[in-house]
């Protein structure tokens, strides 16, 4: 059993490391690393304590203390730790030589090879797989890295910081030396060596520093790196404009590799990326890919301040850098694209990923209080809910005070390993507010529900809103038994007149459109309200809560048509649809040609909406036409869920929308057609037009598969962008038959040599909501391009099935669970992080109806009881069953 690490047990390190000199001689199987560590006792630590350096799968070759071999019995060495029993109680130098095998490193943590390229991933605890070290974020050192390699194998050698020297060694070898003047924790260390193509440019910072920016990719793919390179420049400019943050080195490098556990990593001056989030060209990347690349480039770049200059004291503070940096990248995307459209996308992700996590057995606070395996806490809760907390802080304080608070945080904490308390203290000091109650957002798991009711008093001309918040009791260790305490919830709101237009009403409790709910129950009274208004609450999704608000259908229609807040207009359409969907799914209604009078009311409203403004904002219109996803419907139902009934409800409503809006949708599709030969642009406006065209095609096909398939096949043949090709293929993939199989075969053939495109092809097939999909997936696992060794392949084929195909993952016969469990076990020996992530598909197992629940539980138990599990998988399995 692994040990539990607790926030409450934090102690400063007994020793500090001020300087690290690394000498790395790259070799495919026998890489040698000499680390020279300048250590000293930490005044805040325990005097005379032994020095225990972390290690993981390391072979020690040599060790010296202040230039002398260590005496017999002075040290104890295992692959996991190096202990110096009686370290000097003054500054001293340890020289440690280790050997590692990058080619055998399938965990993709530490130093490994991806398509022959040497690269590293050290967050959270990978540096200890390179050398023995105090591998904890509050030990910060200045690094100098010398990398040596065969020139033919690794002509490009990159490290953190600035290049300071390079040269030849005999006929075949060469070296490069990099120096990073900024003290950093070991998790931000990186190096790269390999044959790589490069695109570059210069950026001059607001401080006048000329920075050499470069993106490195597989040779031959340089043309697909320009968009990422441009995104770096836009990120740099945005952070200067928006937060006054400038880059602080002479070089900024981004490297794309094809084997990567996550999206990307913010190593100081040397960001390493999953190539899926770098490579873009119109014929290989969709508009969604372009948006993701831009967002992740920005995210990693923004970490340079929120994460690197100010880092985390310990891993419990992960949200300090991740929540804040997600907030920053979301703001960037909102500024670069359409703010309301981006906000809707953020909320859809939050509801589809974070809400279920918060409602299931893996629920945890944004700042967890205990963990067994930290790599399992890179979650939607830490990242996305963490970002929502920062956004609420801005809403509560107002943008100017918020900005000053950020400045103060960076000024006070620069160069330190900080905590959530340090972060909040900066805002408390700047605003003069007590943020103690607000800080509960970091401590209490679970999604709050806010129930609201409104009452108009004609005689008194008042309108009264009553708010009641409730939090689920989550049995986390730290919260054991304690009742959750009220949260500070910013409610951005307005009143809409029944015929449209704002209502000029006043309440002294509302400042700048914000009402702050701080108690379990509160009442808000507006005066001067002559007619019953329609309240528009939580505008812009001002808090990550579930809202229970019994609006009538007509009130929702009023909001859809007239609300001044775009998010709530979209929300009104979603709520109208959700009522229909939940009603039908709960009743187990059969597939039908339409969803009755409620469905008709929705289609009428959507028709008016489309006629009025679809062409003015196609991206927004596409979102309004998109029904809530199956996972979201399942969450709304909450218990005894039947995924097939949900699919039937959703399909029925799609058929109705497609039928009733068909002629309009086809007309829109024509009106939005791209002029032949028009140049491609990945910008938000062009992407929005493609999104609406394809949403239209999709609904038309639901109602009339024959016409739709013909249109989609034609689009597949003529389209010049991957967005249009993939959308057509997705549409065709939902219609069983010859045309589908032919289209899939052709697409697969055409993209045979493009792994990232094949990933889309794998994913599409894995998401077909039909019983045949299970065998299709098993068949594709034997495809020559598929490999359990590559995380992107596993995610596109297996995780798409397990996490994004609810009817088939939850097959009543349990075969979907079995496949998932089987892959988790097969993968665990190779790559535990990816295996553990896949196992989180079982997060919803307690919500499904009895028969499925029993099947899911037995598959989970089979995993949990397998001997020799990794800590990663055994942690997820254990918590899922607890
Ligand atoms: N810090 C990275 C980010 O930008 C995530 C790295 C997580 N890696 C891991 N192995 N847990 O979000
Ligand atoms: Zn991050």
UniProtKB/TrEMBL annotation:
<keyword id="KW-0378">Hydrolase</keyword>
<feature type="domain" description="Aminopeptidase N-like N-terminal">
    <location>
        <begin position="89"/>
        <end position="188"/>
    </location>
</feature>
<dbReference type="GO" id="GO:0008270">
    <property type="term" value="F:zinc ion binding"/>
</dbReference>
<comment type="similarity">
    <text>Belongs to the peptidase M1 family.</text>
</comment>
<dbReference type="GO" id="GO:0006508">
    <property type="term" value="P:proteolysis"/>
</dbReference>
<dbReference type="Pfam" id="PF17432">
    <property type="entry name" value="DUF3458_C"/>
</dbReference>
<protein>
    <recommendedName>
        <fullName>Aminopeptidase N</fullName>
        <ecNumber>3.4.11.2</ecNumber>
    </recommendedName>
</protein>
<dbReference type="Pfam" id="PF01433">
    <property type="entry name" value="Peptidase_M1"/>
</dbReference>
<dbReference type="Pfam" id="PF11940">
    <property type="entry name" value="DUF3458"/>
</dbReference>
<keyword id="KW-0031">Aminopeptidase</keyword>
<dbReference type="InterPro" id="IPR001930">
    <property type="entry name" value="Peptidase_M1"/>
</dbReference>
<dbReference type="InterPro" id="IPR037144">
    <property type="entry name" value="Peptidase_M1_pepN_C_sf"/>
</dbReference>
<dbReference type="InterPro" id="IPR045357">
    <property type="entry name" value="Aminopeptidase_N-like_N"/>
</dbReference>
<keyword id="KW-0645">Protease</keyword>
<keyword id="KW-0479">Metal-binding</keyword>
<feature type="region of interest" description="Disordered">
    <location>
        <begin position="865"/>
        <end position="882"/>
    </location>
</feature>
<feature type="domain" description="Peptidase M1 alanyl aminopeptidase C-terminal">
    <location>
        <begin position="554"/>
        <end position="882"/>
    </location>
</feature>
<keyword id="KW-0862">Zinc</keyword>
<dbReference type="GO" id="GO:0016285">
    <property type="term" value="F:alanyl aminopeptidase activity"/>
</dbReference>
<dbReference type="InterPro" id="IPR042097">
    <property type="entry name" value="Aminopeptidase_N-like_N_sf"/>
</dbReference>
<dbReference type="Pfam" id="PF17900">
    <property type="entry name" value="Peptidase_M1_N"/>
</dbReference>
<dbReference type="InterPro" id="IPR012779">
    <property type="entry name" value="Peptidase_M1_pepN"/>
</dbReference>
<dbReference type="InterPro" id="IPR024601">
    <property type="entry name" value="Peptidase_M1_pepN_C"/>
</dbReference>
<feature type="domain" description="Peptidase M1 alanyl aminopeptidase Ig-like fold">
    <location>
        <begin position="446"/>
        <end position="549"/>
    </location>
</feature>
<feature type="domain" description="Peptidase M1 membrane alanine aminopeptidase">
    <location>
        <begin position="227"/>
        <end position="441"/>
    </location>
</feature>
<dbReference type="InterPro" id="IPR027268">
    <property type="entry name" value="Peptidase_M4/M1_CTD_sf"/>
</dbReference>
<dbReference type="InterPro" id="IPR038438">
    <property type="entry name" value="PepN_Ig-like_sf"/>
</dbReference>
<dbReference type="GO" id="GO:0008237">
    <property type="term" value="F:metallopeptidase activity"/>
</dbReference>
<keyword id="KW-0482">Metalloprotease</keyword>
<dbReference type="InterPro" id="IPR035414">
    <property type="entry name" value="Peptidase_M1_pepN_Ig-like"/>
</dbReference>
<dbReference type="InterPro" id="IPR014782">
    <property type="entry name" value="Peptidase_M1_dom"/>
</dbReference>
